[in-house]
Write a sequence for this structure.
């Protein structure tokens, strides 16, 4: 399985690019929100590295590689395709807005806004909310550009670590956000629940 590629950009079109790695050209699908960022920052023959979501099944024997600038974006994509009737190809077309924005729509049960995504109708939008609500608050807190996440065993420390190193919050601010969230909802027992409560607190 391919999880990361680093090479030279050799070709680019609407939804895909060709990345030359060690003399081999990889055809990589790129969601619209990622492509817009790449078009602003890269040109042919520039160095490029991508986090890869790799897909190959009996029904789809030809490998499908989907590329992202940031690991968090790939994480969200792999959550997004757990929704019934949304496979990798459909998800690539649907992700026309930044992950932060889509995650906020999900957390706020904003079906109307989700329907504006390419190929997402009323029924799929409702399925997205039903499947992912409460699981994507972490991504709703993303700034425009985020770095990588390290795994931390304790979920409170995990959330603090992500808020500081990946989402760009100051250490004191992150601790305050977590403390306030834990006071509002002392029964929190997972990082997903804590991210959701932190996000809820930012809206108050």
């Amino acid at each position: 399985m391919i999880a990361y590629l680093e090479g030279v950009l050799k070709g680019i079109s609407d939804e895909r690019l060709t990345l030359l790695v060690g003399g081999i050209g990889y055809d990589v699908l790129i969601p619209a929100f990622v492509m817009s960022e790449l078009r602003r920052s890269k040109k042919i023959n520039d160095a490029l590295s991508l986090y890869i979501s790799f897909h190959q099944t009996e029904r789809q024997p030809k490998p499908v590689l989907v590329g992202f600038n940031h690991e968090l974006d790939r994480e969200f994509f792999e959550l997004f395709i757990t929704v019934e009737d949304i496979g990798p190809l459909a998800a690539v077309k649907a992700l026309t807005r930044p992950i932060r924005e889509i995650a906020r729509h999900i957390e706020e049960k904003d079906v109307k806004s989700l329907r504006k995504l390419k190929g997402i109708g009323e029924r799929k939008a409702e399925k997205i909310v039903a499947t992912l609500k409460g699981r994507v608050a972490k991504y709703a807190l993303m700034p425009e550009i985020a770095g990588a996440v390290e795994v931390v065993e304790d979920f409170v420390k995990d959330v603090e670590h992500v808020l500081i190193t990946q989402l760009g919050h100051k250490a004191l601010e992150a601790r305050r956000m977590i403390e306030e969230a834990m006071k509002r909802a002392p029964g929190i027992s997972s990082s997903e629940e804590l991210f959701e409560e932190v996000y809820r607190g930012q809206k108050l």
Notes: The chain has a mean pLDDT of 89. Residues 149-202 form one domain. The first strand starts at residue 4 and ends at 12.
